[in-house]
Amino acid sequence: MKTTITAKKMQVPQNFSEYAESKISAKLSKFFGDEAEAKIVMSELRDKIILELTVKYNSIIFRSERTAADKNDALDDAIDKIIRQIRKNKTKVEKKLKDSAFKEAFAEPVEEVSDYNVIKEKKFKLRPMDVEEAILQMNMLGHTFFMFMNAQTGNINVVYKRDDGNYAVLEPDND
Fold this sequence. Notes:
With 175 residues, the protein is of the alpha/beta class. 30% of the residues lie in helices and 30% in strands. The protein is built from 5 helices and 8 strands. It has helices at residues 14-28, 71-88, 90-93, 101-105, 131-141; strands at residues 2-8, 37-45, 48-57, 60-68, 128-129, 145-150, 156-161, 167-170. The strands form 2 sheets. It has a 4-stranded mixed β-sheet, covered by helices on one side. The chain has a 4-stranded mixed β-sheet with strand order 5-6-7-8, covered by helices on one side. Helix 1 links the parallel strand 1 (2-8) and strand 2 (37-45). Helix 1 (14-28) packs parallel to helix 2. The longest helix is centred in the middle third of the chain and has 18 residues, at 71-88. The protein is globular. The two termini are 26 Å apart.
């Protein structure tokens, strides 16, 4: 598995790079093939390490973000969260991961997740607006996300409120 480590406004010690690669290889290689990519992005905020771990394999993306006082603890927690995501969605993702991953990894019984229960479908007209107006609309509705047509690009975008209180925009990559 290819591992990339990026740090924002901090240095990555060599021993952490080695630790991260060995830990990811040991815990996640049983689920993913050699062509999987793991990306770690670290930053420091008020004596805490914020670590984002993203694993891409066969068009499936697993993502985990963890905050801890120590970067090793944050990495361990992030890896454990991805394993929990795989476990929770075992039946849905096992077709896209390595065939042997689930036979080896989960000897104990795992709770099966049935098909998702969609309880409501909603249709609405999209009108062009900029990101700031979409955030305003979302906040006025009391929602945590809002789909809109971006006035600058003409594409359908989604704006959402992050756990850290900031906002993010999802937009399609039509390349």
